[in-house]
Amino acid sequence: MAWIFADLHFGGLFSYRIPNLSPGYALTSPIPSQAALRLALVDTAIKSEGDVKVGEEIFELVKTAPLEIEPPEKVSILKFFIKRLKPSKLEEKSFEESFGVREYCHFLGPMRIYLKMSGQEERLKRIFQQLRRLGTTDSILSCEASIREEDPELTLTSKIITSLKPDISNFLRRPVVTLNEIKKEADFSQVNPYSKKRKGYPFVSQTYVLPLRETRRGENFVLYEKEPFNLK
User: What are phi and psi of 137, to 5 degrees?
Assistant: First the structure.
């Protein structure tokens, strides 16, 4: 068993809309869901090799592999009131103006991903290095990846809320988000991005506490700094 250590460097702002929230009020999570990361690897593998069957192979490799997400050193979340265009309900091939709220994250430092594998580590490392975005299409990134035998520092990775000891330091002024994870029994046909027919819902919702602490807040922003959990 070995870990793939991947550092994601974002070229600009990052936005990942919290699942099940309205697009008109698109609040962001400071990290993507585990499901989004796993499926980003699948999608990248398909695009790099031009074969959907490769995506199915990668899906089976990463579907249940241990995955840890460590946010950057500092995260500022900015809230914007925006004007947008959406398809018109009255006239085909035309758009109408609407308004909404969208949040974006600005990172200081890389987001770190740790994926534990028991084979094909070099293959997954190459796929990580080919990642180019997460979240919205403007969340452009580059990735550096390596294979290591030592465990990552797990006090600095996101945790399912029920797995943390009831210590106030583990919850006070920390962001809590509900994100999707892939069900263990899910199969590739349910997540295949190139399939028009998908049967069943492959995701389960999980609530996470992030290893960040709010240090400053303004009218349209919040600043968080990374702080480890108390796991003892």
Answer: -65, -15
Helix segments in 63-149, DSSP class H: 121-130
Burial class (CB in 10 A: 0-12, 13-18, 19+), 227: middle
Domain 2-226 fold = Alpha-Beta Plaits (3.30.70)
C-alpha atoms less than 13 angstroms from C-alpha of 222 in its C-beta half-sphere? 15
Closest CA to 182 of 73, 47, 65, 56: 65
Parallel, antiparallel or unpaired: strands 141-148 and 221-226 = unpaired
Per-residue tens of pLDDT for the chain, all 232 residues: 899 999 999 988 999 999 888 878 889 999 999 999 999 999 999 999 889 999 999 999 999 999 999 999 999 999 998 887 777 777 777 888 888 889 999 999 999 999 999 989 999 999 999 999 886 666 899 999 999 999 999 999 999 999 999 999 999 999 999 999 999 999 999 998 777 777 789 999 999 999 999 999 999 999 999 999 999 8
Measured distance CA(120)–CA(134) in Å, rounded: 23
